[in-house]
Specification:
heterodimer, A: alpha+beta, six-stranded mixed beta sheet, three-stranded antiparallel beta sheet, elongated, B: three-stranded antiparallel beta sheet, rod-shaped
């Protein structure tokens, strides 16, 4: 009788160890994933916000529903930076304005499932980022105007 | 022979009970740490959202919107926070104190400034 009780207790102990281990591992994984997603979210939004504010001069910012184009003049040459979402990543492509951009050559910035840009008026944009089912949006205001184009690239 | 078996199983039982005791203490510490980690994760998520809300409000203020417009344009995530705005106008410069908090924490407190001649 005592042996059966001891064995039962042992089985209970092993089961308990297993449950606590599984629970802790699952929990640890969730915390890691959540931190990573939080980092991706803030990196993507900060990147776009800083880029827009950095180009806040007349004629600097153009947008369509999926892409931003930031224009600048360096040594008399016109250059454009395209910011867009491609194959699950936020990408940036810097090229001469006169060149037709090849978006497959863009630099990968951070993981992102979808980028939607809503043009509110000539001084405000709403940036919507989607990470799976999770969406994240922010209105960005500028002083020098945003031009809306049906297709910036 | 019987006596020996009983004695062995008794020692095993004692060992097992001690192991279970030690394990229970470790499990309790582990679960407590996980709870702390979860609370830190929530705080970090809320802080990130609060920074985003505060930055959007500061942007909105700098672009010339008044407090009512800023409140109307708050993102949907702001519903779970208390957003407090205090305007200070010294004639030349208008400053907006933005504080984002909830019942438990004050997440961010920033000041945005603009020239006083802007509408609102």
């Amino acid at each position: 009788m005592q042996m059966i009780f001891t064995l039962l207790l042992f089985v209970l102990f092993v089961a308990l160890v297993f449950i606590v281990l599984l629970y802790s591992a699952g929990f640890y994984k969730r915390i890691g994933e959540s931190a990573e997603q939080l980092n991706d979210k803030s990196s993507a939004m900060l990147f776009i916000t800083q880029k827009i504010h950095g180009s806040d001069y007349s004629g600097g910012i153009s947008a369509d529903k999926k892409m931003l184009r930031l224009d600048e003049i360096i040594d008399g040459e016109e250059y454009s930076t395209y910011i867009y979402c491609d194959n699950g990543y936020l990408c940036e492509l810097f090229t001469e304005k006169s060149n037709a951009p090849d978006l497959s050559y863009g630099n990968i910035i951070t993981p992102l499932d979808r980028l939607d840009i809503e043009y509110i008026n000539d001084s405000a944009l709403e940036i919507k980022l989607a990470f799976g089912a999770d969406t994240f949006s922010r209105k960005i205001y500028v002083n020098c105007g945003i031009s809306y184009e049906s297709q910036v690239a | 022979m019987k006596k020996q078996t009983r004695s062995k199983s008794g020692v095993f039982l004692m060992e097992l009970l001690i192991s279970i005791g030690i394990f229970s203490v470790c499990a309790a510490v582990c679960i407590h740490l996980l709870a702390v980690a979860e609370s830190e994760r929530r705080y970090s998520e809320n802080l990130n959202t609060a920074v985003n809300i505060a930055a959007a409000c500061a942007d909105s203020f700098k672009s010339g919107n008044d407090i009512e417009q800023i409140k109307n344009e708050l993102p949907k995530e702001a519903k779970s926070f208390r957003c407090t705005f205090t305007m200070v106008d010294d004639g030349g410069t208008q400053a907006l104190d933005i504080m984002i908090s909830d019942d438990a924490n004050e997440y961010i407190h920033i000041k945005a400034a603009r020239k006083g001649d802007t509408d609102g």
